[in-house]
Design a protein that fits this description.
Bound molecules: adenosine-5'-triphosphate
Distance between the termini: 34 Å
Strand content: 25-35%
Helix content: 25-40%
Largest sheet: 6 strands, mixed
């Protein structure tokens, strides 16, 4: 598959701070790619380097096989959707979406046709004459998307695109964004610190820590086979067991009460928390605490805090992370 974006040994410092410390990355054409990491890990700087808002101190950035390391943003075939949407408040929805084409001197008729098409893509037909102030957060987010899509960029860059939305709308938009990307088939690269968002939407995820990528793979790879204590803890609930100098990660849904698996341990229930569909049970085993997630299927009988219990899991779900 063709490579849309390639970063080779890219580094960027701000004064003393090494924001990006020698990143290597290849993103395929049509991929939905997430950059995930804690605050300050460098993911936004990588996005801005791809967009051209920052220039690298060293290393190479290629778009479609062409070196753009020193190319200004407007000459790169990418568009960015910002978290705060950056819409023009005095312009209508249609004018906002048209604006980029106007700057590029596209004739009026074509401009309007393309803007209407972009608005239809994000399900905003009928909203053309409104001003941004007359829209909900989710609708403003769609206008921002339409405004980027109207340019038909090769790559769409999204900086925490759903960060300003409430949880329910966020979940709806995650599914919509994924469908939209599948539909139009262009490369989407998005930055998030929300692991659930990355797991839900991305074909592939790069986990950032301290200016570098510490693991890259499909959502399943990263969740099921974390390569370090950091990744195990950052993506999903961290369940670590310290044994004979090794650190082992086991995901909470792989552990059950009783002795069904080929590994068993005795522990004491530290807390039981009802979460709706699931119950979360923390069990202290020596100096470690394991978290179990159990379905509230009406069949399970849950223990009480302080009770001695046996927990078990299958050794194939253990991953050594340290
Ligand atoms: P967040 O989720 O908080 O946006 P991030 O992972 O996207 O974090 P970056 O924004 O890439 O992190 O920042 C990486 C490091 O570089 C941080 O220590 C940050 O303070 C620093 N940094 C980023 N931009 C600048 C700048 N323009 N000037 C000075 N320091 C900067």
């Amino acid at each position: 598959m063709a490579i849309a974006i390639r970063l080779s040994n890219v580094a960027k410092s701000f004064g003393e701070v090494k924001a990006v410390d020698g990143v290597n990355l290849e993103i395929a054409d049509g991929e939905f790619f997430a950059m995930l990491g804690p605050s300050g890990s460098g993911k936004t700087t990588v996005l801005r380097l791809i967009a051209g808002f920052e220039l690298p101190d060293s290393g190479l950035i290629e778009i479609d096989g062409v070196d753009v390391s020193q190319t200004p943003p407007f000459n790169r075939d990418v568009n960015t959707v910002f978290q705060d949407y950056a819409l023009f408040p005095h312009m209508t929805v249609l004018e906002n979406v048209e604006y980029g084409l106007k700057v590029k001197k596209v004739v009026k008729e074509e401009r309007i046709e393309r803007a209407r098409k972009a608005l239809a893509r994000v399900k905003l037909e009928g909203y053309e004459a409104r001003k941004p102030g007359q829209l909900s957060g989710g609708q403003r987010q769609r206008v921002a998307l339409a405004r980027a899509l109207v340019n038909e960029p090769k790559v769409l860059l999204l900086d925490e695109p759903l960060g300003a939305l409430d949880l329910k709308l966020r979940h709806e938009m995650q599914i919509e964004l994924k469908e939209l990307q599948r539909d139009i088939g262009i490369t989407f690269i998005f930055v998030t610190h929300d692991q659930e968002e990355a797991l839900t939407m991305a074909d592939r995820i790069a986990v950032f820590n301290q200016g570098n990528i510490v693991q890259m793979g499909s959502a399943r790879d990263i969740y099921e086979e974390p390569n370090s204590e950091f990744v195990a803890g950052f993506v999903g609930i961290s369940n670590l067991l310290h044994r004979e100098g090794r650190v082992i990660s086991i995901r909470p849904e792989k552990i059950s009460l009783g002795s069904e698996g080929d590994r068993t341990s005795l522990g004491q229930v530290a807390s039981v928390m009802f979460l709706g569909a699931l119950t979360k049970i923390d069990v202290a085993i020596g100096s470690d605490t394991l978290t179990l997630l159990s379905k509230n299927d009406g069949l399970e009988k849950f223990p009480s805090t302080g009770e001695q219990v046996e927990v078990s899991w299958n050794s194939k779900y253990e991953f050594q992370v340290g």
